[in-house]
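Exercise 7 asks you to align residues with tokens for two separate proteins.
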Amino acid sequence: MASPGVTVRRDRHDVVHRAEELASGLPPLLVAADQVASTVSQGVHGRRRVGQGETFWQFRRYEPGDATSRIDWRRSARSQSIYIRQTEWEAAQSVWLWRDASPSMGYRSSKGLSTKANRAELLLLALASLLIRGGEHVALLGDGQPPAGGRAALQRVAARLETSAASTPSLPAFEPLPRYARVVVFGDLLSTPDEIKAMVGAFAARGVRGHMVQVLDPAEETLPFSGRVRFEGMEEDGEVLFGRAESVRDAYGTAFAAHRDALEALARTAGWTFLVHRTDRPPEPMMLALYLALAEDFGV
């Protein structure tokens, strides 16, 4: 007969082995996002809610964890699924996330850096994890699925990002979200200010508040190249050759600063926030700033 100590050690080994098996099934990016979210959540306190609103928004299918008191039995009786009623207050606590997966996001200036696309997805998943831990619901903008909470929702978002990694537009298409919804956009935001203004304005006109996170490679800010350099566009932008790339650095810096100033101004006018993140910097400070901005949106 085995001693109690042997049994305990075997049980612990089984638990660790099972945990390793579960972790091995997670996409590496999701594991990294969870690590970022765990680090940031240590400095974030729980938030208290003030109660639910009464204005109906839409029906959605019942999910494990939903209160049975919210089931709409009349709507459910007309189908083979169970539905609950969502109110606009609940929608206001839901966040729609979007990331730019256009070809330009595949850029990185050195092998030691993440591509902009990988960093944008890491930030998106880490934010989703933080929000879900705080009891919020999340959805991918343009995915057609209603916001949801819980670990299963995070897994769905990660899986959807993986399957939709093909080329996408540089900016999200407008979709009619409920009033007071929240949108977070991750991308390099190198489209023209007029294009970005049109995107922000369409959402803001419906009362949707948002946050833009510009994800950049450090070389895109500093233009560190010297000598004869040929620049090739990644989205059929053509190419340009400079005999001395350093000769245009000052003019480039001035134009880049003007573009950023324009984005900051249009975000401020619309009541949105504009944040900048570089791929040579750790993601945690950005995640904390973004999460606190959303918490302020929710009136915490």
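Second protein for Exercise 7:
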Amino acid sequence: MAGHSHWANIAFKKGLVDKKRGKLFGKLARYIIVAARRGGGDPAANLALRYAIDRARKASMSNDTIERAVKKGTGELGVETFDEVMYEGYGPHGVAVLCEILTENRNRTAGEVRKIFEINGGNLGTTGCVGWMFERKGVFVITSKHTTEDRLFEIALEAGASDVKAIGDNFEVMCDPDAFQSVTAALEAAAIPTESAELARIAGTTVELDLDSARSVLKLMEALEDHDDIQSVYANFNIPDTVMAELASED
């Protein structure tokens, strides 16, 4: 399984989303604000906003909070401005790391992110140092109890998905960004719920980690995820199932 899936599943299993729900809501609100500022406050006419709102609802953000974020983006409740920045670097054991940032202060954020890399055995790199390794893809994770592989394969591919894989107790559906909304709509029409649905950055090659290296890389990933300005973190690590089992037993 590719690193992005491992990280998503590890975060889900550890309950990080629940532990940091307030921080997550803040990040999702920023994403809504930026999407509304760029394309207007109507999700029917603004696909980026629709995607941002869908993510917020999946995380159980209230409609009132979502509406306030939209109004902040359109200027109805004052103006909040965030710069979109991509930070790139290397984690322990040569793992490539990509961070999507929304910040009000680039200089402050750069210093804080650089420190996170350094104290966790990595280093912040220059623009373009690892970005070329990653490709933008739509990624859906679906629990196998909700559907069969054959049914999911037929529905997803007809809607424009490029791949469907069985991974442990889950299925992973991938598609090009242009097909993300059509695949989302097809899954909803078929009443197939998703554990996660996101536009992610997928690495073309991966670095396989053993137990010790997995611990150090995941420590960096969690520290980056915990930063308020970092919206998403992607990396090109792969953790074998046997190592995953050992990590899970340590919790």
